[in-house]
Each structure stands twice: as structure tokens, then as C-alpha cells.
TrEMBL record:
Binds directly to 23S ribosomal RNA and is necessary for the in vitro assembly process of the 50S ribosomal subunit. It is not involved in the protein synthesizing functions of that subunit. GO terms for molecular function: rRNA binding; structural constituent of ribosome. This is Large ribosomal subunit protein bL20. The keyword Ubl conjugation does not apply. The gene is rplT. Keywords: Ribonucleoprotein, Ribosomal protein, RNA-binding, rRNA-binding. Belongs to the bacterial ribosomal protein bL20 family.
Amino acid sequence: MPRAKGGPKTRQRRNDRLKMAKGYYGGKSRLYRSATEAVDKSLLYAYRDRRAKKRDFRALWIARINAAVRSEGMTYSRFMEGLRKAGILLNRKILAEMAVHDATGFSRILATVQAKIKG
């Protein structure tokens, strides 16, 4: 039985994998086996980190909101409770943006929340 070397399809599959490894250091960008291992690992990292990014940003938004709210003498959890009671439907991303870039608007929301909690 003759040795199977692979035809154009095999070469195309290898070239595709080497193109994905373009820019990797050393043999990882030139040797097929090393490139395959590196690309497989990087695809796993990419999949994992697309999900981790969502967690990281949520934590960042909460930290920003907490810092802005604490400067006014309230805690984050009490603020979120007040938002629900006041019926304000802004998500954490928008609240964090407001806390950083629109201090007057955020302070108005905070005043509404404080009035709702006290009343």
C-alpha cells in the first residue's frame, strides 16, 4: 500500500492553520504541529476570556458606582435597592458612565433614590 502524503486539501488545511498562527514567536508560526497546538490553546483562551470580559466589566461598573455613591454617604447595595423602589431602569453600565462623565445627572438620580429610601 503506498504512503498517503495528502493532496491539495491537506495542504490547504495546514496553510489555514499556519495563517492563524501568523505572528506567533519562533517555530509556533512556522512548524505545523507547534502552530496547531498554539492556535488550539489561543482559541480556548479566546472563548474563555470572551466570557470573563463580561464579568470583569460588571465588576468595574460596580466599583465605579460604589465609589460615586459612597462619596455622597450611601452604600452600593442601598443605592441599588433605592433604584428598584424608585422604578429607575438604568443598567450598571449606564450608571457607571454617568458617575464618571455626568456628575450632575448622577447626583440627581442619587437624590431621587435617597428620597425614595427615606420616604
